[in-house]
Design goal:
This protein is α/β, with parallel strands linked by helices. The protein has nine helices and 14 strands. The protein has two domains: about 160 residues, Rossmann fold (3-Layer(aba) Sandwich); about 110 residues, HAD superfamily/HAD-like (Rossmann fold). The longest helix has 15 residues. About 45% of the residues are buried.
């Protein structure tokens, strides 16, 4: 396996790419404020002729993410399009129109099902489960729902995971996501259907948006995917055939930010997937 190449800035590799699939939470913002140098880098990419599609495991439609980015004062000139796991998830829910569904997650994710033919019900009457997160991600963990998940597994219910991320950084704290619940469900034999990264459908959707915007096909070897999570961003890039670019200051910051490059290479070698490039923060 080739070594990960350190980058001082994205510009060092820019000529290799026509499309950047960029993660949002952990790269563009931390849930509280935008990273200004990252935003500037995305704008420079577009000026350089590189299309930028923001690809996020947020369990909400892309319109909601646009509003969030507006709230963080991220200019719309920083991206060409946005694709969310929520967008992919809505297509999975449409395929189960009218079936009784138990929704596991906070009410802030209700836009995900707005306008769809869904019939929310209690755990006992559900035909499938939609997991968008934890009811209270400040206090709950996947273990909180052990009894609930065991009941679903015993009945063979499929669980649609709207956000495959295990954790996310929120203002410097690590918060559990829907992916941690889905993993716990798989571990007891439950069936999980994933909507977002690292699974292929969200990358195919993002590529389709980019090619429509450019009006021309884009070769996979001209695509990079920037993110801060090995399990989703880097694994997904590798699975799609794109070059993974790791931002070190995200969810793996405790292992990587204070380490030397030699120590970082050792850490990458112990992971299931290795990025092609790495940099502390996304900068131009």
């Amino acid at each position: 396996m080739a070594s990960t190449l350190p980058l001082a800035g994205f510009s060092e590799a820019a000529d290799r790419f026509d499309l950047c699939l960029c993660d949002v939470w952990g790269v563009v913002h931390n849930g509280v404020a935008a990273y200004r140098e990252a935003v500037a880098a995305l704008m420079r990419m577009r000026q350089h002729g590189i299309s930028v599609i923001l690809v996020t495991n947020a369990p909400r439609p892309s319109e909601v993410i646009i509003g969030q980015l507006d709230g963080f004062s991220v200019p719309r000139e920083a991206w060409d399009g946005i694709v969310t796991s929520g967008d992919v998830c809505r297509s999975l829910i449409r395929a189960r129109a009218g079936e009784p569904m138990f929704r596991l997650g906070p009410d802030r994710d209700l836009p995900l099902i707005a306008g769809l033919d869904v019939r929310e019900t209690g755990p006992e009457a559900a035909a499938y489960v939609l997991c968008t997160g934890l009811f209270d991600d400040e206090k709950d963990t996947a273990a909180t729902y052990a009894e609930l998940l065991a009941g679903f597994a015993a009945r063979g219910l499929p669980l649609i995971c709207a956000n495959p991320d295990l954790v996310v950084e929120r203002g410097g704290r690590i918060i559990p996501c829907a992916g941690s619940v889905a993993l716990a469900y798989e571990e007891i034999g439950g069936q999980v259907i994933y909507a977002g990264k690292p699974h292929r459908p969200i990358y195919e959707a993002a590529l389709a948006v980019a090619e429509e915007k450019r009006g021309a096909p884009i070769a996979v070897d001209r695509i990079c995917a920037v993110g801060d999570a090995i399990r989703t961003d880097i694994a997904g890039a590798e699975g799609f055939g794109a070059a993974g670019i790791m931002v070190l200051a995200g969810i793996h910051a405790q292992d990587l930010m204070e380490a030397s490059w030699e120590e970082r290479h050792g850490w990458f070698g112990r992971q299931t997937h290795r990025p092609a490039y790495a940099m502390p923060h996304l900068v131009w």
